[in-house]
């Protein structure tokens, strides 16, 4: 299905994706939009012009400065809104007179992406980070714990430090061991982690649990994510309660939220199946998604260098299983909660999701040569100030962050 | 300093405390109040009658349904509001005509506590649980990790499952080991944890840190807290990322938030001092508080039985040190964040903060005899359905929860 808007750039913002985001311009306050090619369709403006009156919902949910009210409406409404937008933007639309052939309205409701500032798409109540990537969990420095294949292992992250792509990342200070003595100073082992994350649409009641086969109904959409990690701080603090300051200084997400429906064609089986307790037995076997995510190291003196190509399919549990487990004891989910996979490494050296694995905790440097007129040899054990790590996935946009010095 | 309102009950809601809470009645929507004896002073009503116009702040902050807007104003405003309320309520007030001797106004702004419903006092962004109680950390089943005395160890908790006193606690289901095999079922080792917690007033910027000697300025006030724990679930899930479902089913807090200023007379030194890295060196040595918290086991067939008497002074780090550490890497705090101590056990068997310690993980039952006409022998290894655990501290009210069955 093609659109009358050119979607031939490499963004992947085509009619089958239609990701949601929050944008503003010099003239427009922060509002909900849908990315299409080089444009953003302004859903607030469309709602104000009465485009959604045929759908049974309160269209003020499309007029907020986050996606929360809209996400809370549930998949029936989301499907109808998406169908309507696809109809309006399709090449062969029957409603051409309403937008395609109406230049005045096009000027009012289509904004060039290059003129928009993007904002955090949802107000995040709680952020949970799982650990369902088996290649990361089994990396050379780690022990695979006995519980690992029995349940999706996870921990609570820090919602206040989730930021949108292009927010500069200040190198954290912290406490860590140097020559086996605790010191306080600039993190010396700053790393990224490639992850995939779901935003919760409809929440769940305190004291109730979500059955695994109904859990997908609670997902609004997905983002790609970089969970920045300070390995030296994390290593010294984590016994016995897990990561804290090693993770809570920043987590970056992509600005565009790809709706659940758009990922239907990319369904895939998880890495392995083995007997699970009934509350984790999901009827659907193609319960995960195959979304390639490229990881590039950019920076002032670097051209863009593709380091790794990860994939969201390298997981042992699906999001449905994560949500069923998360709510098994009655923990309530709320609209806007962010649920992430943990690091998505693959089986080969080209598919790693963090430097910890690529350099074996800094012991084997990652090296490459720049191309161009002047060839340089670049060596990284961990990230340096001035480095930019950029994650990219078709339809999600970019998830990037520049490392700035601690002072 | 005494009030013209009788504060001779055992609540501790006297003129020197004046805790804040959120209440509603049949006629009044949820609003901010201050507890005094058997009454609540309705600050919204007072604000509407223009009582705060002499203080330089937007009094709409006193008209919300949470304390957040008010807490964000900072300690200068809080002090002036508190001074004004103390003046109005003092026995020897110079402003007797405005309230004490004005029966019509008394009827409008004083509400009987018995007629009020109390609500969660703040909208909680993130909830962090520390582990600064040394007697709990060194309990017989635990190893004291090498990092423990060098930094306040903590982890991120689940904000969505924090509830107010008297919310029934459903026994969680979950995955745990039975005869060394993972099963899914009702938690069999349900426990409480006695804690003390601070609500953040003014937050901090992402990428900045709070110096330890300025950290108290970011605290609005304190609550007592029960961090319910499912020991069997927690034990099986916690390696390597820490507690998750073993903790995220419920955490109960007291309804009344005691302002920082009210605890000044109860300052105390922490348990031990030892050389700390400079970012944790606090000038003030009486950096913690001595607040006794009683723990009672109540229930249908039980009279109230006092099990333990804990104290908030049994900690190795102050809240100021916890906040300095928490923000050292740039993690932003937000108004309404909840920061807790972890379990507050003391050095003796009468001062334990959880059943895990009292029964050595269920191996040595806790036993007592009921008093009254019919003496019964009561035995607990962990909590049973129908049990009520009630924490009480003078001026904070009660923090209680009834265990209800999982179905």
TrEMBL record, chains A, B:
Keywords: Calcium, Hydrolase, Magnesium, Metal-binding, Phenylalanine catabolism, Tyrosine catabolism
Pathway assigned in UniProt: Amino-acid degradation; L-phenylalanine degradation; acetoacetate and fumarate from L-phenylalanine: step 6/6
Every Fumarylacetoacetase N-terminal domain range: 18-121
InterPro entries recorded: Fumarylacetoacetase, Fumarylacetoacetase-like_C, Fumarylacetoacetase_C_sf, Fumarylacetoacetase_N, Fumarylacetoacetase_N_sf
Catalyzed chemical reaction(s): 4-fumarylacetoacetate + H2O = acetoacetate + fumarate + H(+)
Keyword Transmembrane helix in annotation: no
Enzyme class: hydrolase
Domain of life: Eukaryota
Cofactor(s) in the UniProt record: Mg(2+); Ca(2+)
EC number of the protein: 3.7.1.2
Key word DNA damage present: no
Ranges where the Fumarylacetoacetase-like C-terminal domain occurs: 149-400
Family: Belongs to the FAH family.
Record's protein name: Fumarylacetoacetase
Source taxonomy: Eukaryota, Fungi, Dikarya, Ascomycota, Pezizomycotina
